[in-house]
Specification:
The chain is 46% helix and 13% strand. It is of the alpha/beta class. Helix 14 links the parallel strand 12 and strand 13. Keywords: ATP-binding, Helicase, Hydrolase, Nucleotide-binding, Nucleus, RNA-binding.
């Protein structure tokens, strides 16, 4: 289901009463927007949609939550209505979760006009995806690596007739070292096509990509300065590194009843914290890049459906994902790149709602934190805590940490056991072989 706040209307709408119809969107798609409760176009949509409908290549510079998907999906669907064709458009995106989310939006907007979409990402069986591609969907949403796998290995699959290419979150696609894959894709798609490039920032790599793949593009820029929305309350907490878990539990208790995303820098720490918090009675689930695609989607769906109120994630969840009901973002670990702070805290205070962001700063992270304040051009207030109350939790948290270590060791042991068993099955004549070797040794001794 598409959440209505993919239109980040509080930050993106001006006071004018421009409608989607005024932008040139056809009635059937205007009705689809109304069904999704997109009452008015956002700034990026107002700027980009008319240019795209005129048939121009578009560069859109806009942050996550600005309504970018609508800005490229509506013109593509309108062009598709005009000239129906299979394998009509390709959307490249950096992460699997974002690919699924864009797929949902295309399906929702195109539900009444029979649009077929396919999401092609890693972590899913190649053969199943090859069957999807054989059906020739109208729109492909893909991560670059897996798409190249299919272009090189799936018989009969070609993008030679493609009419539209979209690169969403282009800065991230390039930062994640997908340059080679993007080059390979650009070589096998037609030069005569429409291209939309959307990015949060105009880096040197994005400028190079723009020159390589866009033809006389129109540039649309929305909120190019790094800033956070007005209704986001930001603060920091300076704490000794050994008490980080204790302060986390204190804040979760103090702000109980809210939904949280807790950002951690490593996959293993998301796992550890989720187990520890569950041992303390919290409904917490992890989300990280080492989880299988099925588990990642499962975690997201549990959080979206509110059956879990705490999502503990790496930066895989910091951009692009549209989760409407996040009340509090906690930066358990400070991001190495200060710009990622903006994306993390942008998960809350969306669509006019209030939100809160709390950043943990230990004695080892002062320099990183100062960079964030420089980026924001302001000093954040200290989050007030009662130290006595915090310290009362030390014993309970220490016990939960002990149980967590045991659980993680057990889980690791089970994994190793399963691997050994697999190896044993693959080499099921081991015992016989060792018996033969023993006989051979005895013969040699004689």
């Amino acid at each position: 289901m598409i959440e209505e706040d993919t239109q980040d209307q509080d930050t993106e709408l001006t006071e004018s009463n421009v409608t989607f119809k005024d932008l040139g969107v056809v009635d059937v798609l205007v009705e689809a927007c109304e069904r999704l409760k997109w009452s008015k176009p956002t700034k990026i949509q107002k700027e980009a949609i008319p240019l795209a409908l005129e048939g121009k290549d578009v560069i859109g510079l806009a942050e996550t939550g600005s309504g970018k998907t609508g800005a490229f999906a509506l013109p593509i669907l309108q062009a598709l209505l005009d000239k129906p064709q299979r394998l009509f458009a390709l959307v490249l995106t950096p992460t699997r979760e974002l690919a699924y989310q864009i797929g949902e939006q295309f399906n929702a907007l195109g539900s009444t006009i029979g649009i077929k979409c396919a999401v092609i990402v890693g972590g899913i069986d190649m053969f199943d995806q090859a069957l999807m591609l054989a059906k020739k969907p109208h729109v492909l949403i893909a991560t670059p690596g897996r798409l190249v796998d299919h272009l090189e290995n799936t018989k009969g699959f070609s993008l030679r007739a493609l009419k539209y290419l979209v690169m969403d979150e282009a800065d991230r696609i390039l930062n994640m070292d997908f340059e080679q894959e993007v080059d390979k894709i650009l070589k096998v798609i037609p030069r005569e096509r429409k291209t939309f490039l959307f990015s949060a920032t105009m880096t040197k790599k994005v400028q190079k990509l723009q020159r390589a793949c866009l033809s006389n593009p129109s540039k649309v820029e929305v909120n190019n300065k790094y800033k956070t929305v007005v209704n986001l309350v930001q603060s920091y907490l300076f704490i000794p590194v050994k008490y980080k878990d204790v302060y986390l539990v204190y804040i979760l208790n103090e702000l109980a009843g809210n939904s949280f995303i807790i950002f951690s820098s490593t996959c293993s720490n998301t796992q550890r914290m989720a187990i520890m918090l569950r041992n303390l009675g919290f409904k917490a689930i992890p989300l990280n890049g080492q989880m299988s695609q099925e588990k990642r989607l499962g975690s997201l769906n549990k959080f979206k459906s509110k059956s879990s109120s705490i999502l503990i994630a790496t930066d895989v969840a910091s951009r692009g994902l549209d989760i409407p009901h996040v009340d509090v973002v906690i930066n358990f670990d400070i991001p190495t790149h200060s710009k990622d702070y903006i994306h993390r805290v942008g998960r809350t205070a969306r669509a006019g709602r209030a939100g809160r962001a709390i950043t943990f700063v230990t004695q080892y992270e002062v320099e990183l934190y100062k960079r964030i304040e420089e980026l924001l051009k302001k000093q954040l207030p200290l989050y007030k805590t009662e130290e006595e109350e915090v310290m009362q939790l030390v014993e309970r948290v220490s016990e939960a940490q002990r149980y967590t270590k045991i659980e993680m060791k057990d889980a690791e042991a089970k994994k190793l056991e399963a691997k050994k068993r697999k190896r044993g099955q693959a080499d099921d004549d081991t015992e016989e072989s060792s018996g033969v070797r023993e006989k051979f040794k005895q013969k040699r001794k004689k």
